[in-house]
Amino acid sequence: MKIALRSLRKNGIYTAINIFGLAIGLAAALLIFRIVNFELSFNKNFKKYDRIVRVVTSERNPDSGESLSTCIPIPAMSVMRNTVSQFEQFSPVREMWANITVANPTGGAPLKKFGMTTPEIGFFVDPAFFQIFDFQWLAGDPATALTEIHTIVLTKTWAEKCFDDWKNAVGKTVFLDNLIPVVVTGVVEDLPKNCDLPLTILVSYPTLKAHRDLYFYDETEWGSCSSNNQVFALLRDAGQKSDAEAVLAKVGEKEYNEKRGFNNGKSHFIQPLSDLHFNEDFGSSGGHITPKNRLWILTSIGILILVMACFNFINLATARASLRAKEVGVRKTLGGSRGQLIAQFMGETVLIVSASVLLGIGIAAICSPLLKLISEVPDAWPFFSNPLIWMFLGAVAVTVTFFAGLYPAVSLSGFQPVQAMKSDVHRRSFGGVSLRQVLVVSQFVIAQALIVGAIITIKQLDFIQSKDLGFSKDLVFTFTMNSDSATVAKQKTLKAKLAEIPAVEAVSFSADQPLSGNTWNSNWNFGSDSEDEKFNIALKMCDADYQKTYGIRLAAGRWMNPSDTLKEAVLNMTAIKKLGFSNPEEALNQEIRLGGRRKMKLVGVAEDFHSHDFHREHEPTIMITRNMFYSEVGLKIRPTDLKTTVAAVQKVYDDVLPEQVFVGRFLDERIAEMYEAETKFSATCKGFGLLAILISCLGLFGLASHAAAQRTKEIGIRKVLGATVAGLTGLLAKDFLKLVAVAILIASPLAYYFMKNWLADFVYRIDIQWWMFVVAGFLAVLIAFLTVSFQAVKAALANPVESLRSE
After folding, report:
1. CA 372 to chain centre
2. CA–CA gap between residue 355 and residue 22 (Å, rounded)
3. Distance from C-alpha of 767 to C-alpha of 781, rounded to nearest angstrom
4. Which residues share a beta bridge with 729?
5. Each residue of 192-228: pLDDT tens digit?
6. How far apart are CA 687 and CA 147, in angstroms?
7. d(Cα 574, Cα 394) in Å, to the nearest integer?
8. Closest alpha carbon to 352 in 599, 57, 9, 601
9. Quick one: pLDDT at residue 84?
10. Cβ–Cβ under 8 Å, residues 636 and 514
11. What is the mean pLDDT of the chain?
12. Cα(386)–Cα(680) distance, rounded to whole angstroms?
């Protein structure tokens, strides 16, 4: 132990590089492990996790391929409940984003009112929901809490919001959107952060049926489908998934075909609860989605960083081998066995790794709060109190000790005494030079690939943020309102008062903004043909000022005239092209029918605009007027004193709708949230990529220091004979730069392959161009040169007398 400590202290710079490099690698691995562990834990708080499923919908079309959604037509739910015997429990749900108000006993404005904000959500459910998902009940009975009409269950947080103490909540009355009185029949503990159902309230399903006009609940409509209507079920056995899907495939088989007059390929299948958090095809009910390929990339980065730290250790240990050759020779001459020597050198590795683990834990603890900038991991998520962290840390420490220390120990202990005493080991018997080259190249292959990846992700995100969306997102302020009959009656008053605000240029009421990610579609008919079209149409309910407010461009015709009901329609260019028209003018004035409703006239064709994120293509869309669906308000405002304007908007809202909750945001902020996951993932990769580059530079710095020390006399002789500092620096740097050049050649095709696959997830994406690899290669060479040249210049500037006087 004493000799090991002396050796480490004597070679302080190399010890520091090893400890710091390993510590960075371990800290990065710990932080990545925390992120991955959090993401993989989603929804596992439910005891029946492996048997809980969601029924989803697939629709195949010869032209547009397969489209997936969570929407289930309401009449299909009844058929599923009665025919799928593999379901032990079955619960239809309806998503909602309601305001909750506590009435004032004396009348007037509510005592309290609360609106749901992202990612909060509420569900209409029946009692079977609590047989599928187990909640921790603080008050109430799960078997009876939601059997009656006008009953509600609150989470603890919302019960305390409404009544200060959750114990006072049961038996009290609150109002949904200040319209429907519901009695609190239960209080449940808040769901954890690692749950894809961020529920705040649960309302009885009979309440939904009793207010079918308000929530557009239709038990006969097979053709229309909204993603708000979903189904969760509990399998009797986890292995019955395929049997249940065989029965589900027959649900609606007749009705869907009769509705269209042809086989449209619409069917239902099962999505396991374990898939909810990782599958982007179906969207989410409020929680964020993390595709598994991102977790694999993160895990790979963590492993690579650790591997690079190990490479540094092996490189520096083998590079310093010649300086310990005499020690090995003396030990062997005096009877030391190879096993004892291995134990000695492995002991030094244990000391370095132990110090690195302690330092790495400290770095990880300090940097842990920064994770919220690049991931969804909450600050309260267990870190060092999580036993998995310590198991992971122990496994990593043992693995790193073994792999990072074994090769140097075996190599050093294998020196022959005679060769070792001659100090000829590094030239003859030791094969570390070629190994070091391989390891240096490997490190810079990783670093180069990460630089290329960072450049491509930055350009793709810039492309997303700067791409023309087909509408104007700037200076559009949005807020929500109810869509009940009382609010509909106040729409004209609200709109008129908003238009009077000096900075407001235009006001539009709609069901949603142009880019919202909402999925509401229907069967439809175009022209004189009696049969429905062979593809569904996405619905956008909006008023006559929608085009002006959001800057939507027209390709032909005009926008709709003011109306409260279905009279005129505007299609987008995707719908026109799918109908077979090459000129949009030819489609104008044709008749359109949605589902079984009355016919309308096509008065205009709009240029395509993005209604979903860049992972999805444009879909056929129809814009129609229908004020009973309007729940979103958009205002185009002038860029003068935005704070005053927003305050004026809120005052109008509170005056006209005092019982409702004002929640307003700018549209560009809402759109930025849609790409928050990509932005954070890019930042994560760039952050840990920089750590990987730093570790590479640490290793290169150590090797350059060793190379300079080994060639001290050579440098002195060259200086005496007239060599310049620049020439000597180039002499020392060229060997390392050759390795970096080889790494660039290897890394470029690898980076191209992986980044091309990453970009494939985006329908609208950049092209990978040659200059990206040139820039990345230049950066890699520059980083390597600066790292090596520091030691090279230091050696070249040294006084040759100091290195030659012993000669």
Report:
1. 12
2. 9
3. 25
4. none
5. 988 999 999 999 999 999 988 777 788 888 877 778 8
6. 51
7. 57
8. 9
9. 93
10. no
11. 84
12. 24
Given this model, what pLDDT does residue 321 score?
61
d(CA 488, CA 484) in angstroms, rounded, equals: 6
pLDDT greater at residue 401 or residue 637 = 637
**Neighbouring residues of 645: CB distance < 8 A, sequence distance ≥ 6:** 477, 501, 503, 504, 637, 638
Chain segment 38-84, per-residue pLDDT in tens: 999 999 999 999 999 999 998 876 655 677 888 898 999 999 999 99
Asked if residues 719 and 30 have their Cβ atoms less than 8 Å apart, the reply is: no
**310-337: average pLDDT:** 75
Q: Are strands 599-606 and 568-572 parallel, antiparallel or unpaired?
A: parallel
| pLDDT at position 244 | 94
What predicted TM-score, i.e. pTM, was given to this entire model?
Answer: 0.79
Length of the chain: 807
* pLDDT tens digits, one per residue of 748-785: 999 999 889 888 878 788 899 999 999 888 888 888 88
Give the residue ranges of DSSP H helices in 121-248. Answer: 129-132, 156-163, 205-210, 212-215, 241-248
Instruction: List, in sequence order, every beta strand (DSSP E) within 452-611.
Output: 476-480, 504-510, 520-522, 524-526, 537-541, 554-557, 568-572, 591-594, 599-606
Rounded to whole angstroms, the Cα distance separating 627 from 710 reads 83
Question: What is residue 422's DSSP assignment?
Answer: T
Instruction: Name the 3-class secondary structure at 41.
Output: coil
622 pLDDT above the threshold of 80? yes
